[in-house]
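Troubleshooting: if your tokenizer reports a length mismatch, compare your output against this known-good record of 313 residues.
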Amino acid sequence: MSSSRLEVTSITAPAAAPGSTLPAKFGRPVALLSRCVAYLQVAPLVAVLLAFLLVPIATILVVSFWDYDQYRLVPGFVWSNYAELLASPVTLSTYLSSIKFAALTWFFTLVIGFTVAYFLAFHVASTKWQMTLFLLCTIPFWTSNVIRMISWIPFLGRNGIMNTVLQRLHVVDHPLEFLLFSNFSVILAFVHLYTLFMVVPIFNSMMRIDRRLIEAAVDCGASGVQVLREVVVPLAKPGIAIGSIFVVTLVMGDFVTVRLMSGGQSASVGLVIANEMSLLQYPAAAANSIVLLAVVLLAVAAMIRLVDIRKEL
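Known-good structure output:
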């Protein structure tokens, strides 16, 4: 009787423990199924990107090689649009003007955005007040960009509020002409429009900083400037990079601000493209758009190489 029990015990396989892995023959189908589910989850986003991003860019690229005259577009494959664009001295001047606007706007928005984000993150103790003050920063975005730009005209005009106040205080004897319809007004409008795009990612980065790191730096004898330079700024670099990408790309492609605030006295790549489209020179405008896209992508690639923005995502 005992020997039969021993035989049964030796033949019966032990039960699988809870949580054990599946046999090898089931592992591959499960992995394939999970991969298919992941692809299905990504498919809507890929479809949207194809329909609204890649297809339009591909269309612009194709049209940039077409020919045209005063009355029609001629489908074909010609290099004349790029040759005329790259050989023209106007192209260099407009791109330098756009880069100048982007650089100055980036600098001022970075200074203002970093200061505001630092104040909200480290000097406002209550989360309630942090959110309240942050929402106050978004109030200008409740109106159109054009309305916000036009609102500067009565303030900066020759007989506007600014010149009137300066004259009554005897700071100046005559109205300041550079306040409106100049590069100064263009930069001012850009900073007004796009500072929030710098505040948001930097504030997000600063809120993720472990406060114990700052306390440790203070305990080690670091001053406020040293804490800012050695702890806060390095840890806020991903947010700075994301904000810089937003600001640079928006300024490089903007043409409405330059047209309204400069009074037609300043040039930008976006404004040139808009003028070419108004003259029905679509292949030339498409070629200019492709070159602008390449320049912006190079700038974004340089920012990504300098800072690992994946830490922010």
